[in-house]
Design goal:
The chain has one domain (about 1-240): outer membrane lipoprotein receptor (LolB), chain A (Clam), CATH 2.50.20.10. With about 240 residues, the protein is of the alpha+beta class. Strand 9 (about 150-160) and strand 10 (about 165-175) form a beta hairpin. The protein has 3 helices and 14 strands. It has helices spanning about 1-20, 40-55, 145-150; strands spanning about 35, 40, 55-70, 75-85, 90-95, 100-105, 105-110, 115-120, 150-160, 165-175, 185-190, 195-200, 205-220, 235-240. The protein has a 12-stranded mixed sheet with strand order 9-10-11-12-13-3-4-5-6-7-8-14. It has a two-stranded antiparallel sheet with strand order 1-2.
Length: about 240
């Protein structure tokens, strides 16, 4: 049971990062008068909002790392991700993690391939749901008013190379907002106008979750069947919270 809950927490580090990607950001959310380079924060957020409104599907390679500084440990997983609005996600991690994770809008399915076991969790806000499940709603049902009330957003830097320009944003939860994360960093790619990298800080920065997306494809045709987990007959399905 403990292992399952720990995995759900780590898995939803990815989900919350994706949620930030699909936040309906509004220029009114900005704080201060940040203006670095050719765009100020208001303009960047408006372009993110416009890109989000056009986004229907996304596919990308994903690299997820979790660093615990006190233990000097790092866990790295790589794979691919598929997303389809409003709430369909497929995250397939290659070995050694060797897991398929599907959110079909109603349930979370975590398929441990080597162990021939699937964990199934209902997506609900009930107290007996695994910790972090309700976080999935962030970014889909979150309103601009809640973002304004809960976060301070700052443009930290503009990183330009021959290949791309990235806008480095910081989101800090306000004291009135109880967040699992002390700080969130986003790197927004010019032209794409969606995040390509995220960092989420827990426990006063002692735990750092980093998500990198590469080879991003936007609005390609993705069948709903990609978000249906096909379970072999010899695989056990368990529902830890039932």
């Amino acid at each position: 049971m403990l292992k399952s809950v720990m995995f759900i927490n780590k898995f939803f580090n990815i989900i919350i990062a994706l949620a930030f990607c699909f936040l309906t950001l509004n220029p009114a959310v900005s704080s201060g008068s940040d203006n670095i380079g050719d765009y100020d924060l208001d303009e960047i957020l408006k372009k993110v909002e416009d890109a989000n409104s056009r986004l229907k599907t996304m596919a990308a390679d994903i690299k997820y790392s979790r660093v615990i500084t006190l233990l000097d440990s790092e866990e790295v997983s790589v794979g691919f991700l598929q997303f389809k609005k409003p709430k369909l996600i497929n995250v397939n991690f290659f070995p050694p993690r060797n897991e398929i994770n599907v959110i079909d809008g109603s349930y979370i399915w975590i398929y441990h391939i080597k162990e021939k076991q699937v964990e199934k969790y209902e997506m609900s806000g009930d107290s007996d749901s695994p910790q972090g499940v309700d976080i999935f709603e962030l970014g889909y049902d979150y309103t601009v008013e809640k973002v304004k009330a809960n976060y301070e957003i700052t443009l930290l830097d503009v990183i330009s190379t021959e290949e791309e320009t990235l806008f480095h944003l910081e989101l800090i939860p306000k004291e009135t907002f109880d967040s699992e994360y002390d700080r969130t960093l986003l790197w927004i790619k010019e032209g794409l106008w969606l995040p390509v990298q995220y960092q989420l800080f827990e426990s006063d920065g002692e735990i750092i979750n980093t998500i990198q997306l590469t080879h991003i494809e936007i609005n390609t045709e993705i069948s709903d069947n990609e978000f249906v987990l096909n379970i072999p007959d010899d695989v056990e399905i368990i529902e830890p919270f039932k």
